[in-house]
DNA sequence: CCATTATTTTTGACAAAGTCCAAATCTGGG
DNA sequence: CCCAGATTTGGACTTTGTCAAAAATAATGG
């Protein structure tokens, strides 16, 4: 993230130490949980309440400044990278999460043939599997 | 589900009233939550503990007899229909969930180009949008 | 620069969804 | 019919997140 402060102002959000710190933490630790981020912020600015972390993450997510992903069996993860329609790879055994570009430029996944009258605004894709590290561990 | 009892035996699972009732409930109420299913089972066999519902759902899911889907902002949903690689449409406003066939027979969604060394075993796709009913409500 | 006002932050209680554990009960095989 | 092992039950507990009210802070206008 280039300039967290400018980003907040662009979205008419009052600039606070907590928001700046959370925004930087998300930027520096992609795919971190709210708890991870709270820890990270605390080492940076000393203290922050749990509620504030959630408040900030919610408002930033609502404004589209960050993106929330919620894989099964995991608390929500946050990332900086928005607006480029990428998806995620998640390791079933260790939870490691990585970005992947959409399979094909045109994003065929984004269009269901029979959409049952739903107005679709997003197609979320999660690839489940085993990461390289865990593959090695499981081969004795 | 044709024959719940046979299904359990095929998977070496002792047959119990609770398992049969949960299995039937899942079959009759696709996309129901654990709580919904508990309610349903209670009207059928009188009583079941919350823990047993979870036990049964977990063992059935592990054996691949039923499938668990976990959309964001929702408790887990269970369904009967397994092994046909279909996906889901979820309404952002009322949570209504419907099945959709994979966009193309060959399931292009299942293959990420750059899989980062992960061994992928499933591609989960959730289409987020607004269902027909909620579209009408929001148009005054 | 200071006061005002609306917004944020904090604190603590609370809720939902699910798991852990030990005791009681039941299933299936001999 | 009995036994061993698996299942069910009940209750406490954990995790993730939200609600609400009070205290603190940021931005605006004079």
Summarize the structure.
The structure is a homodimer of 140-residue chains. The first copy, chain A, has helices at 4-10, 17-28, 34-45, 50-62, 132-137, and strands at 32-33, 67-69, 77-79, 87-91, 97-100, 119-130.
What proportion strand of chain A? 15-25%
Task: Tell me the Rg of chain A in angstroms.
Answer: 17 Å
* Major protein interface: A-B, 39 and 39 residues
Order of helices and strands of chain A: HHEHHEEEEEH
The quaternary state of the protein chains shown equals homodimer
So how many helices of chain A? Answer: 5
Structural class of chain A: alpha+beta
Shape verdict of chain A? globular
Number of β-strand runs of chain A: 6
What strand line-up does the widest sheet of chain A have?
A: 1-3-2
Question: What would the average pLDDT of chain A be, to the nearest integer?
Answer: 89
Write the layout of secondary structure elements.
Two copies of one chain form a homodimer.
Chain A lengths: L3 H7 L6 H12 L3 E2 H12 L4 H13 L4 E3 L7 E3 L7 E5 L5 E4 L18 E12 L1 H6 L3
Parallel strand pairs in A: 4-6
Antiparallel strand pairs in A: 1-3, 2-3, 4-5
Helix pairs in contact in A: 2-3, 2-4, 3-4
Chain A binds a DNA duplex (30 and 30 nucleotides) through α4.
Describe this structure in words.
A three-stranded antiparallel sheet of chain A has the order 1-3-2. The N and C termini of chain A lie far apart (42 Å). Chain A has helices at residues 4-10, 17-28, 34-45, 50-62, 132-137; strands at residues 32-33, 67-69, 77-79, 87-91, 97-100, 119-130. In chain A, helix 2 (17-28) packs across helix 4 (50-62). By secondary structure, chain A is of the alpha+beta class. In chain A, a hairpin with a 7-residue loop joins strand 2 (67-69) and strand 3 (77-79). The A-B interface holds A 68, 70, 72-73, 76, 87, 89, 91-92, 98, 100-101, 103-104, 108-109, 111-132, 135 and B 68, 70, 72-73, 76, 87, 89, 91-92, 98, 100-101, 103-104, 108-109, 111-132, 135. Strand 6 (119-130) of chain A pairs antiparallel with strand 6 of chain B, so a sheet runs across the interface. Chain A binds a DNA duplex (30 and 30 nucleotides) through residues 13-16, 18-19, 33-35, 48-52, 54-56, 75-76.
């Amino acid at each position: 993230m280039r300039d967290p402060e400018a980003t907040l102002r662009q979205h008419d959000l009052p600039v606070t130490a907590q928001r700046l710190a959370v925004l930087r933490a998300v930027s520096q630790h992609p795919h971190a949980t709210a708890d991870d981020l709270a820890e990270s912020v605390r080492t940076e600015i000393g203290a922050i309440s749990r509620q504030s972390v959630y408040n900030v993450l919610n408002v930033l997510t609502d404004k589209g400044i960050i993106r929330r992903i919620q894989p099964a069996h995991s608390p929500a993860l946050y990332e900086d990278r928005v607006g480029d329609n990428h998806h995620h790879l998640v390791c079933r055994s260790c939870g490691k999460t990585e970005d992947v570009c959409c399979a094909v430029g045109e994003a065929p996944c984004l269009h269901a043939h029979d959409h049952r009258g739903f107005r679709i605004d997003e197609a979320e894709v999660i690839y489940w599997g085993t990461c390289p590290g865990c593959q090695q561990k499981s081969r004795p």
